[in-house]
Amino acid sequence: MKNRRKSRELALQALFCIDMLEDDTDELIDEICHMINPSQKTQEYFLILVKGVIERLNDIDERIIGTSSNWKISRMSGVDRNILRIAVYELLFCDEIPPKVAIDEAIDIGKKYGTEKSGAFINGILDSVYQQFTDGGAAPKEP
């Protein structure tokens, strides 16, 4: 779906900004949304992703840290870190998104916005998160 891809890319931009500014207030989210001016369909999923990641950031980061050997989350590039956050959110809390889609989208977005190594790095971590998820270690999905 083109709208979901656009929502993910815009969510990456917003979460990167929020991450760098260390400000996750609704006012900043509204300002970012006003600046990027997404279509209504794109905005709906964009807001689900941004607010969902912010709301569950500690759980998401714990998953990433738990599967990324020798990588502190603060040492990851801001782009890779926030792509991972979006994908882990989708894996754990978005029943309507097939895991393969969440992982593939994250890898593609990583290749587009990250470094030449981002795709492989993101793939490795998300595969590990998904393995934990399928082994029963995931948090219950919530609406």
Question: What's the SSE blueprint?
Answer:
Elements: H1 2-21, H2 26-36, H3 40-55, H4 57-67, H5 78-93, H6 99-113, H7 118-137
Helix pairs in contact: 1-3, 1-5, 3-5, 4-5, 4-7, 5-6, 5-7, 6-7
Structural write-up:
The chain is mostly helical and 143 residues long. The chain has a single domain (2-137), classed as N-utilizing Substance Protein B Homolog, Chain A (Orthogonal Bundle), CATH 1.10.940. 76% of the residues lie in helices and 0% in strands. The protein is built from 7 helices and no strands. The chain has helices spanning 2-21, 26-36, 40-55, 57-67, 78-93, 99-113, 118-137. The longest helix is centred in the N-terminal third of the chain and has 20 residues, at 2-21. The two termini are 21 Å apart. The model is unreliable at 138-143 (pLDDT under 50).
Looking at this protein, list some descriptive labels.
143 residues, mainly alpha, single chain, 76% helix, disordered C terminus, N-utilizing Substance Protein B Homolog, Chain A
Gyration radius, rounded: 14 Å
Distance between the termini: 21 Å
Number of domains: 1
Largest sheet: none
Low-confidence stretches: 138-143
Task: Give me the CATH superfamily.
Answer: NusB-like
Q: Beta-strand percentage?
A: under 5%
Mean pLDDT metric: 91
Tell me the series of helices and strands, N- to C-terminal. HHHHHHH
Oligomer: single chain
Tell me the helix content: over 70%
Global shape: globular
**Structural class of the helices, strands and pairings?**
mainly alpha
